[in-house]
Design a protein that fits this description.
alpha+beta, Transferase(Phosphotransferase), domain 1, 4-stranded antiparallel beta sheet, 3-stranded antiparallel beta sheet, 16 helices
């Protein structure tokens, strides 16, 4: 619901600093709910100072648009790392994953200690610079526990990405810091396996899988994961809140204990080497050169979307290196009846229609076979006459009177106006036929 631009912050004596400028989309700037969320993000993020959290430089208003100037991270997010590792067929080393997770735990623990629940811990909100520094970004839907106790989220709405929600968040229940630990566990599971944890056909199936906490063990997907590392991550993925780690600091201690047992330490240099292997050793230089002297395509991309410019393609793909620190709002799809009930309901409707049709057709056939008509006439009464309706423009003609009688009765005299065919004449037996009949009769008759 917001857009991010790469900008330069100018100062005296030619001072310049690259910043990420975030503002609400123009068509949402007049909606109070989104403006209130943007202001809450600015207030929450401005009060957080930590080496692993994106720093807020400035907050202001330009006309009707609010903007937020943030620290620019020259690197990639974890989603880009995950995709690049799968493209190369080289999973991320276990030590690098643990180092990234330790930095994320430190950032989350610092926010949790101030009473802030992030509620949107996803690969897109964890940035890794080319020099190996991990940053947590986007507090757009974060909420302090004090504010949450006064104003709960509107019933029936979900905020965040469904695939990285905790089970209690997917059920729209009250959240605490342990909800962020579950989301971080989902990110860790995907980094280690190279697969999506809650990958389903649609968002509704994803939501059900998250609510049921359908998490397969790490060893069943990637058997070479160290048991201690797998145990630390699977504890964060427990369905019951009380079975998870109590704080992010406890998860960080478990990861550090595994690193120490494996003879490793959290190292930014090792993560930087992994970034160079994935994106090239000169990725940072190419990006900085593009920032200092942007090409026409990059300059056109940095312009606001409403500025008149011809569409061009950039070989540098600037949309990959501008950090997408945006605010996300996801609503669950409407509830639909299970498809397995459609067949029985359709069969029931067809059966009811067939029974009604058979009942009416049976009554109609019974009435026709009995020779009954809707009009009842007394047999001894005078012939009933039917008065024809007058027509416009022509004189009414008198219709002959009809008398309706059952088929079993014999008509002595035809009604007036009804002509019956003459009865067939009876043949008189000839003499030859009479003699033949006498010869065939037995004697004595």
């Amino acid at each position: 619901m917001a857009e991010v631009f790469l900008a330069r912050r100018a100062g005296p004596e030619g001072f310049e600093k690259r910043v990420a400028l975030k503002r609400i989309l123009p068509h949402l700037a007049r909606q109070r709910d989104f403006v209130a969320m943007f202001l809450d993000e600015a207030k929450l993020a401005a009060g957080i100072e930590h080496p692993h959290i994106v720093h807020i430089h400035d907050f202001g208003r330009d006309g009707d648009a609010y903007y937020l100037a943030m620290e620019y991270v020259c690197g990639e997010d974890l989603a880009a790392l995950w995709r690049r590792a799968n493209e190369l067929g080289a999973p991320l080393p276990f030590a690098d994953v643990a180092t990234i997770l330790v930095a994320a735990c430190e950032a989350l623990h610092h926010a949790h200690e101030q009473g802030i629940v992030h509620r949107d811990v996803t690969p897109g909100n964890l940035l890794v610079s080319f020099d190996g520094v991990v940053k947590l970004a986007d507090f757009g839907i974060a909420k302090s526990q004090a504010v949450a106790s006064r104003a709960q989220t509107v019933a029936g709405t979900l905020k965040g990405k469904i695939a990285y929600m905790s089970p209690e968040q997917a059920r729209a229940r009250r959240l605490d810091r342990r909800s962020d630990l579950f989301s971080l566990g989902v990110v860790a599971w995907e980094l280690l396996t190279g697969k999506r944890l809650f990958h389903r056909r649609n968002d509704l199936d994803v939501l059900r899988a998250v609510q049921m906490s359908d998490v397969p063990p790490l060893a069943s997907v990637r058997p070479d994961v160290p048991p201690a590392l797998a145990a630390a991550i699977e504890t964060a993925l427990e369905a019951d809140v009380d079975d998870r780690w109590d704080t992010a600091a406890e998860l960080a201690q478990a990861l550090l204990a595994w690193l120490a047992a494996a003879g490793e330490t959290p190292s930014k240099a090792r993560v930087a080497a992994t970034m160079a292997r994935l994106f090239g050793s000169d990725a940072a230089e190419r990006r900085l050169a593009a920032v200092r002297a942007p090409s026409d395509a990059t300059a056109s991309f940095l312009l606001p979307p409403d500025a008149p410019s011809e569409p061009r393609l950039s070989p540098l793909r600037p949309e990959r290196w501008i950090p997408q620190i945006a605010m996300h709002l996801h609503l669950p799809p409407p509830r639909m009846p299970p498809l397995r009930l459609v067949g029985p309901l359709l069969a029931l409707l067809l059966s009811a229609g067939g029974l009604l049709f058979g009942f009416h057709s049976q009554r109609a056939s019974r009435a026709l076979s009995a020779g009954l008509v809707p009009t009842s006439v007394a047999p001894a009464a005078a012939p009933a006459t039917v008065e024809p309706l007058p027509t416009l423009g022509a004189p009414a003609l008198a219709a002959p009177a009809l008398k309706l009688v059952p088929r079993a009765l014999h008509i002595e005299e035809p009604p007036v106006g009804l002509q019956l065919p003459p009865a067939p004449a009876q043949k008189r037996p000839t003499r030859a036929r009479h003699d033949r009949q006498r010869r065939t009769q037995p004697d004595g008759v």
